[in-house]
């Protein structure tokens, strides 16, 4: 289901509950509210893109959506805040894109707990400066690919990738990132490709 209209300022209440895909493109959603997608048990893909007024994604937006395997949040330059409980219990998530936003911190992904191999694609977020300890623990019980390119990353803490099984890590084009600490991969398996 495609919702593409600049007059849309909130999630419509008449969306088909059996939708497999929801796309919000060129809308004027300022907030994605708590529980916005609850009751969409068949949902496999969500896209929120090209929204220049989106500021907040609240808690429990992406929660208990057992069939959801792809989330795309992109071209939302005014998105400043993603609640630490926005992404929870998504056992089939395989792809999460957060690109070209105004967020200042990596989103909390530790409650996703996917049973699948996950590609986490966080790029072109120039206000993200730090990768904290344990940033990706709990994202997946399987291996993962992390694309963290073209952000504003300046510092990566020790144990940042603790608890992960990394197949690939891309940190390219973080022009202010000069070095990695010795213990950056402590507690991690991999990466196979850096």
Shape: globular
Major sheet strand order:
1-2-4-7-10-11-13-15
Count of domain modules: 1
Largest sheet: 8 strands, parallel
Low-confidence stretches: none
Question: What's the number of extended β-strand segments?
Answer: 15
Amount of beta strand? 25-35%
Count of helices?
A: 0
Helix content: under 10%
Mean pLDDT: 95
State the CATH superfamily name: Ribonuclease Inhibitor
Tell me what the structure shows.
- 0% of the residues lie in helices and 28% in strands.
- It is mainly beta and 194 residues long.
- The protein has one domain (1-128, 140-149): Ribonuclease Inhibitor (Leucine-rich repeat, LRR (right-handed beta-alpha superhelix)), CATH 3.80.10.
- It is built from no helices and 15 strands.
- The strands form 4 sheets. Strands 1-2-4-7-10-11-13-15 form an 8-stranded parallel beta sheet, with no helix packed on it. It has a 3-stranded parallel beta sheet with strand order 3-5-8, with no helix packed on it.
- The chain starts with a strand and ends in a 24-residue tail after the last strand.
- The protein is globular, with a radius of gyration of 16 Å.
- The model has no long low-confidence stretch (mean pLDDT 95).
- The chain has strands at residues 2-3, 21-25, 31-32, 45-49, 56-57, 62-63, 70-76, 81-82, 87-88, 95-101, 118-123, 130-131, 144-147, 155-156, 166-170.
- It comes from Lynx pardinus.
- Its main location: membrane.
- GO terms for molecular function: follicle-stimulating hormone receptor activity; G protein-coupled peptide receptor activity.
- It is a multi-pass membrane protein.
- Pfam families: LRR_5 (PF13306).
């Amino acid at each position: 289901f495609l919702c593409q209209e600049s007059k849309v300022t909130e999630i419509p209440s008449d969306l088909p509950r059996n939708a497999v895909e929801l796309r919000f493109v060129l809308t004027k959603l300022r907030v994605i509210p708590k529980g916005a997608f609850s009751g969409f048990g068949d949902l496999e893909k969500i896209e929120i893109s090209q929204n220049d007024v989106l500021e907040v994604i609240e808690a429990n937006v992406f929660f208990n959506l057992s069939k959801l395997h792809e989330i795309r949040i992109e071209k939302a330059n005014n998105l400043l805040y993603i609640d630490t409980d926005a992404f929870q219990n998504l056992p089939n998530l395989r792809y999460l894109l957060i690109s070209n936003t105004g967020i200042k911190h990596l989103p909390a992904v530790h409650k996703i707990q996917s049973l699948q191999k996950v590609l986490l694609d966080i790029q072109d977020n120039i206000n993200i400066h730090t990768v904290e300890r344990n940033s990706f623990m709990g994202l997946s019980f399987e291996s993962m690919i992390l694309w963290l390119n073209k952000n504003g990353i300046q510092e990566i803490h020790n144990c940042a990738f603790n608890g992960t099984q990394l197949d690939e890590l891309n940190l390219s084009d973080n022009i202010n990132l000069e070095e990695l600490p010795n213990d950056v991969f402590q507690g991690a398996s991999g990466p196979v490709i850096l």
